[in-house]
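seq as requested:
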Amino acid sequence: MSLIHETDYGTPASKSSDTVELTIDGAKVNVPAGTSIMRAAMDLGNQIPKLCATDSVNAFGSCRLCLVEIEGRNGTPASCTTPVAPGMVVNTQTPRLKALRNGVMELYISDHPLDCLTCAANGNCELQTQAGVVGLREVRYGYEGENHLKSTKDISNPYFTYDPSKCIVCNRCVRACEEVQGTFALTVDGRGFESRISPGQMENFLDSECVSCGACVQACPTATLAEKSLYDVGQPEHSVVTTCAYCGVGCTFKAEMRGDELVRMVPYKDGKANHGHSCVKGRFAWGYATHKERILKPMIRAKISDPWREVSWEEAINYAASEIKRIQGKYGRASVGGITSSRCTNEETYLVQELVRAGFGNNNVDTCARVCHSPTGYGLGQAFGTSAGTQEFDSIQYTDVVFVIGANPTDAHPVFGSAMKKRLRAGAKLIVVDPRKTDLVQSPHIKADYHLALRPGTNVAILDALAHVIVTEGLVNEAFVQERCDPAEFSAWAKFVSEERNSPEVVEKFTGVPAETIRAAARLYATGGNAAIYYGLGVTEHSQGSTTVMAIANLAMATGNIGREGVGVNPLRGQNNVQGSCDMGSFPHEFPGYRHVSNDAVRELFESIWGVKLDNDPGLRIPNMMDAAIDGTFKALYVQGEDILQSDPDTHHMSAGLGAMECVIVQDLFLNETAAYAHVFLPGCSFLEKDGTFTNAERRIQRVRKVMAPKNGYADWEITMMLARALGYEMRYKDPGRIMDEIAKVTPTFSNVSYKLLDEVGSVQWPCNGDAPLGTPTMHIDHFVRGKGQFLLTEYIPTDEKTGPRFPLMLTTGRILSQYNVGAQTRRTANSTWHPEDVLEIHPHDAEDRGIRDGDWVKIKSRAGETALRAKITERMSPGVVYTTFHHPLSQANVVTTDYSDWATNCPEYKVTAVQISTSNGPTEWQEEYREMTEHNSRIAPLDAAE
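struct tokens:
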């Protein structure tokens, strides 16, 4: 293996369809109009020297190394900023150019440290390389004069250093921060000799607005900005292309290695989801894979109050299997179940649901995807006939009106958030529906045209009001509706939304959004050109989550914003493989491919392959499993890669259910919160040790490639197979590729997918089958999957969770950029530098009423329970609404969330909890008891302890 080197063309590609012929160094070349001379030369294999130019940002023309001569023109223009022209004759190597470049490089080197042998970038430094390219052999200017060699290094950022003594002020980092990331955290301070790169107002990197996405580090041609891992480990010597295991964007990275040690994760330019960009999590927060708290040996115990005892793999697997057999023998076949993970691969998830259905003999399988995006599956399935987003991420480039509801992409899906901001800076309009002022509402060079700051729980009312305006003001795309949708259903829907009770004036009274703002937003969405809706958990995690998704689909169909680039309905999935875990049949009522377990033909297909008779009755969802456990009829659970105790609602109910079980098997990297109630712990693998695939939010299936051997001894799919065999159910897969072959055989939307295809083309979006052998970037182009689009009546029904004198505030929850989900991974990295604890965001008015100061401990009490956090007073919040995250287990945010859930899917109503806030002296009694319990239940017996 060797390092994967990607070609840098110096300037971005032109999108023109017209071509231009010119001559460069005697060779003719045809390129798109608007292409730079530098890029045209690269097409001929001629690499013009450069320092300030890179193809991830627009040309700048400051370094003066890429000078060329053009016949018939005076001077020596920069090839990066000069576009080609028909008949142009260019010379890139002449004595004059050589002398000019040599002189420019000599000036750079005269103010640059000559510590190449000990520099972190030695062997991978563009300044070093270009000095050789231009033939620099001596520097006539000494270091006696004024220079920057003693500039102070900034090491404040936990992941990279900034050494201004090595800076050549090429501006690449500043441009990357602006053009690629869109944060505008960097600037060039001073002029001439005094010029230097500055984060913010001469702050250090840690204290500035820098979000540590790594774009500046990626762009830097020297060691001015360099990963600290390069200092610790050295330059990498081989790399493997793989897929990030954090959010649902699915960024592609080069894992750059030295031996079996990971040096750095470098975003891959050919990644179809990220195009060479990254965020702080994917770029830097991979250290959890080798964290000292990771469990690498199997462990068992008879009671959860006992310390863990390390055992061999054979003993752990046999003990787990014997317990499942014992429990099923005593309590019946339906007394056990399993939970798949949205962080594991498609292949691993497929095996877990197979183990439950074929090995356990029931359909008691569920997944965390149900507690976040199951309303997407139901709602879009009803309206369109398929349960996934309609577009690829790149579709945003053609969007004129961006409609974001219940999503915070700059924090939860940051790489796509950057692409969205880039389109907004280019002129697209923006509508944000969110109770909180997210960064999209207003940030550098971004301002929402309309912010509908609704009260939590009123999504359906807002969407019906928008539809009311579109219908009553004659803004419906009648041609699209007549051709593509059921006319009778549309008429019934149009009559429903036209009713006065759905008007903005009536809806304003309980949503808090001014009627005129609703009307203006509706007009913009319906008439502003290509309009695309992006939504997240702020839509789905409600008692009317499925209804809200249907209302979104209604809006898209009524305005014709479906079936082409730049439009559509796009759910932003929270975890790396939420889409895949749904596709793979992780729900108790569906086989892979979203086919009901009662379908005889589908069941017979799986029976013929698995060789066992399958149950035709849907199994239990997670909350039903907990209910049955408390009732004494559900006694064993296999949990792969999920922490249901921390992530699921109503912690008291979850802990009671887990505590009532006789055997809980947890397969994970760390002793998570659920493991406090476990009897068997099977150490799992990080994504760096996996082979398989993830499916991102745009239905993109991508390869995950193993960059190091499993540190626990076995891959996750092998562990599931061992458990199946111990139960007497034989799985015969030889490798993950064979598992995917079976998935393709039994899942119509995956029928053309194989590792061979993915290795050839990089990635595909399902459906990928005979009709679309290379995948389907845009869905529903000529017709909906179900045939005619279905308009559905979306009656607004207020949630049962209401504010009142005892609980006057509404709590909603979400995520933050630096942390991820339950924090099991990111909390074990330096990302905790930015978010060491969850805090409660509260509006200044609500804080003043309660005598709360910024940083005070406050108690949050709901009808379900109470917990305590520190307060953060901020005008991001609307009066009457408070907000927190759930990344830290001791925060116990889900102690206060209720058991209310979506009417169709049981997706929990995380986003609407009535609470009271009061001052506190610190953590609650429950939090202290919980901490003591988890510490006690996480003890590991010494290896020499008596058995």
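The longest helix spans residues 313-331.
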